[in-house]
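Figure 6 in text form: structure in, sequence out.
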């Protein structure tokens, strides 16, 4: 079995010819290949990314794109590591701060360990046009508006398309801007498989009416295009592409005249045409004054994005005027900030009325820097980088703002938000000293140490969760590390393969913050381990965090949290999709209170007599396999182990199921018993005759 795919690409540039050999490590990137596809992975592996500034957000973005498998990542940050960086910059340490290392020096080596196939380097000096032109995507984080405009203009002035992304987090507020050029092509807007319908009839009419089989609902939408294949009779339809309209449950019309087509006889599949889309992005300079529509994440905050657009602009003006962001919790600086915002709004007309209360909160926490926000926006921007490199999935167009003001204390005072000069200052400047002390004493149970578990542990270490003497994080996972895990479970390295996930992840988290009080277990959380996770254990917890990969385990943990009245943070991922649920006792519904709708399944008569798609065929094949090689042999073994008891039970049980079991025993021991290879071949030939000829002929005859 081949585990790598190698592609050789030749690029001509005037007199220079460069040949690049790209190898897709399928063992490492198996999950990504399933989501992105080979063509997108090849594009990704030929892309170089420049990341300007490497505080928490920049480091998160670098980590994500390196794990994704780009060709190269350049980190440009000459700033010295500071103590408050450690609240979110998980690859900087107190030793780096003491040594006076730059942020790029502190993180480049550790970033390189994530994926040896990616060229990771640091750039020293000004990020000028010559540096920008060597990359395919440029990401500016924590960059002032003037500098970001300069970099964006250099990207647009380059002789090749260079995508530009600007991202920033300030306390519990964050922003992202994307500019992928004047004509960016999206080759697949959603990444989903093309929809298809099995046809039952087509009318000779204008517009033509297509009726589909009734066991599956038509999921096409008006305006989409479909192409046809395997149509018998009306063969003129094969290969034709037409627009769908007036979609019903089991039918749709075509914007097509089939009046002169041959009569429809049978068969046919209508398949959705996945169309490309071309987007025209505005430059940063233009989009600041004309932002257009904002991408919303919370429909309860419909009017929030324009206010935040103004707030981030006002912060840049405030820093340029006063030399630094507003003092945390300062009412005086908050008033000055609002004045700057009102002056800026007078020229930009961003909002009709300035939300002074919101902008004061923004000002008071704008010096804050927290790991969860960096992680969230690092994930968002990392995905936008992949979109820019591959053209897969619809990109962010063009502004996105987010806030979590609900997380903040009711009052923000200058005394409570004053930094103390330690690694948690970035968080203290958001939530205050009292909240930080509470965070450090939490007793947390993390269930799972995979992709989500690694991210949670990293955040816990940066936040100082359970880093006090009375705090504790218990993490458990009974799984071991495999090579395919390394493309997303970033706390592991190739030398950890075969080791326990929880142990390795805990050790890596303690490297981020040595004061983290973590206890690693390798037990599965289930009814079988209630001697380990007993009542005293559950009663001693403050919060439970799920990082599981199956529903049954989630339901069990949820049931324990309900019984012991413990908060549960539930989340999961599937490809590019994710979900999260906060369960608070006596306030919200618990995880098990609602269930996903059952998956669509075909009737057994369809599976056995009329399987007409791949799902039907797979289900039928599995049923036959279990019957031949599992159920029937198991029944025969039950008879052979205790024949007299089996016979007595069969005679005493007159129902049809027992009769079927006896027939299975007779089939295995009398009719299908094979002792030589030739007899096995003869049996297989008989099975083929029965399943793929006799039954079909009988079905078509009757």
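Output sequence:
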């Amino acid at each position: 079995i081949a585990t790598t795919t190698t592609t050789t690409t030749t690029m001509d540039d005037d007199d220079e010819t460069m040949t690049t050999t790209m190898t897709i490590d399928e063992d490492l990137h198996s999950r990504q290949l399933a989501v992105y596809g080979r063509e997108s992975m090849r594009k990704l592996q030929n892309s170089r990314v420049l990341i300007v500034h490497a505080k928490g957000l920049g480091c998160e973005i670098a980590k994500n794109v390196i794990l994704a498998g780009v060709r190269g990542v350049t980190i440009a940050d000459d700033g010295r590591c500071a103590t408050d960086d450690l609240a979110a910059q998980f690859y900087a340490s107190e030793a780096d701060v003491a040594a006076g290392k730059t942020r790029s020096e502190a993180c480049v080596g550790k970033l390189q360990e994530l994926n040896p196939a990616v060229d990771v380097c640091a750039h020293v000096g000004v990020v000028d046009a010559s540096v920008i032109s060597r990359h395919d995507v440029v990401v500016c984080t924590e960059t002032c508006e003037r500098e970001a405009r300069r970099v964006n203009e250099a990207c647009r002035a380059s002789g090749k398309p260079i995508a530009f992304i600007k991202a920033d987090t300030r306390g519990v507020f964050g922003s992202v801007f994307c500019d992928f050029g004047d004509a960016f092509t999206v080759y697949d807007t959603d990444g989903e498989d093309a929809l298809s319908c099995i046809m039952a009839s087509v009318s000779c009419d204008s517009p033509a009416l297509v009726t589909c089989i009734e066991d599956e609902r038509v999921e096409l939408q008006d305006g989409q295009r479909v192409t046809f294949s395997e149509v018998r009779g009306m063969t003129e339809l094969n290969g034709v592409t037409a627009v769908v309209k007036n979609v019903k449950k089991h039918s749709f019309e075509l914007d097509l005249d089939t009046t002169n087509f041959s009569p429809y006889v049978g068969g046919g599949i209508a398949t959705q045409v996945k169309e490309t889309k071309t987007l025209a992005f505005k430059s940063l300079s233009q989009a600041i004054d004309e932002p257009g529509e904002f991408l919303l994440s919370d429909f309860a905050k419909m009017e929030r994005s324009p206010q935040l657009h103004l707030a981030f602009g006002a912060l840049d003006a405030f820093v340029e005027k006063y030399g630094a962001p507003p003092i945390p919790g300062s009412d005086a600086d908050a008033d000055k900030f609002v004045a700057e915002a009102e002056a800026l709004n007078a020229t930009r007309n961003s909002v009709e009325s300035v939300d002074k209360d919101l902008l004061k909160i923004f000002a008071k926490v704008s010096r804050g820097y927290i790991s969860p926000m960096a992680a969230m926006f690092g994930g968002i921007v990392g995905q936008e980088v992949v979109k820019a490199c591959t053209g897969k999935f619809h990109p962010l167009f063009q502004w996105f703002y987010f806030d979590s003001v609900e997380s903040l204390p009711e009052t923000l005072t200058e005394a409570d938000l004053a930094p103390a000069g330690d690694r948690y200052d970035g968080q203290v400047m958001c939530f205050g000293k009292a909240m930080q002390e509470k965070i450090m004493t939490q007793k947390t149970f993390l269930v799972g140490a995979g992709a989500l578990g690694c991210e949670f542990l990293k955040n816990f270490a940066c936040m100082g969760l359970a880093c006090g003497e009375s705090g504790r994080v218990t993490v458990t996972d009974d799984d071991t590390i495999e090579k395919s895990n390394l493309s997303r479970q970033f706390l592991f390295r190739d030398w950890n393969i075969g080791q326990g996930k929880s142990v390795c992840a805990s050790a890596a988290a303690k490297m981020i913050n040595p004061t983290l009080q973590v206890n690693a277990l390798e037990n599965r959380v289930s009814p079988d381990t209630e001697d380990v996770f007993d009542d005293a254990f559950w009663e001693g917890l403050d919060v439970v965090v799920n990082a599981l990969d199956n529903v049954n385990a989630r339901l069990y943990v949820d049931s324990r949290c309900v019984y012991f009245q413990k908060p549960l943070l539930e989340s999961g991922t599937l490809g590019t999709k994710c979900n999260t649920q906060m369960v608070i006792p006596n306030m919200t519904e618990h995880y098990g209170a609602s269930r996903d709708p059952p998956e669509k399944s075909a009737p057994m008569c369809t599976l056995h007599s009329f399987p007409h798609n791949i799902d039907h065929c797979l289900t039928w094949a599995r049923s036959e396999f279990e019957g031949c090689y599992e159920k029937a042999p198991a029944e025969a073994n039950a008879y052979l182990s205790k024949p007299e008891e089996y016979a007595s039970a069969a005679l005493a049980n007159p129902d049809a199921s027992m009769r079927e079991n006896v027939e299975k025993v007779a089939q295995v021991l009398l009719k299908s018993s094979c002792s030589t290879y030739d007899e096995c071949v003869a049996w297989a030939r008989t099975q083929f005759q029965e399943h793929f000829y006799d039954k079909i002929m009988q079905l078509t005859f009757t």
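Caption detail: The CA atoms of residues 289 and 312 lie 13 Å apart.
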